[in-house]
User: Fold Glycerophosphodiester phosphodiesterase from Dysosmobacter acutus.
Amino acid sequence: MKELFWVAATAVVVLLLLEFLLQGRRGHPQWKLLRKFRYAHRGYHQKPEIPENSMAAFRRAVEHGFGAELDVHLTRDRRLAVIHDSSLKRTCGVEADVEDLTAEQLKGYRLEGTEERIPLLEEVLPLFEGKAPLIVELKSARGNWNEIARLTCETLERFHVVCCVESFDPRCLLWLRENRPLVVRGQLSQDFMKSPSGLSTMHRVALSCLLYNFRTRPDFVSYRFEDRRNWAVRLCCRSRGVQEINWTIRSLADQRAAEREGHLVIFESYDASADGKGARG
Assistant:
């Protein structure tokens, strides 16, 4: 506990000293469109027939006037698979990791007992061209943070889709800042003091308190809705004007609470347009 206290105290001091560095680009031209939408978490999925991160879920999001959030992993042959977990156990019932398989091998698996397969990012992007924006989460693994950031940007540049890119891994954001500074980038986080996720104490504090922001300079912070009262989020987003996105919203009441505070929402398990205001009021 003593170690934790001093780590937290150091975090406070560092943030106060570097607070002036935490301001994002509120004037980035893509915010005009990004702020108009609500974002379906892993697509607008609906069990059992429409699995998460499936082409059907992304088509449904577009049809209902929503943007979408999706996750990308790097396959063994350096293709970008749209799937949340590295392991295929939960979604396909198979003991295998995406990073160990080729894109061709992935075609042989089906999602959640349906006929839907794991799509590639290049297959999803045409669905959103000229229609709705995307939030793309980089799922780095096995030290591939620079490669997944680079290949994702190269793929996005082939299509005319308004999007922003986020990751829990600050190294991905640093790569974006140094190599694609015009891409709208965001730090994903939550209160890791409540949910350790196997991280070291220092890393838990740094991510929870957004300490990496002084290097990565994110344009937005995507923070777990239940943890949004975190003082670091208030300092970064509410004092310095960095856009906040909340995940994962699971009720109309929470959606209204987040949007009253000016936050964008990533939602699932309900109709986000049920208030009669369309994609976003």
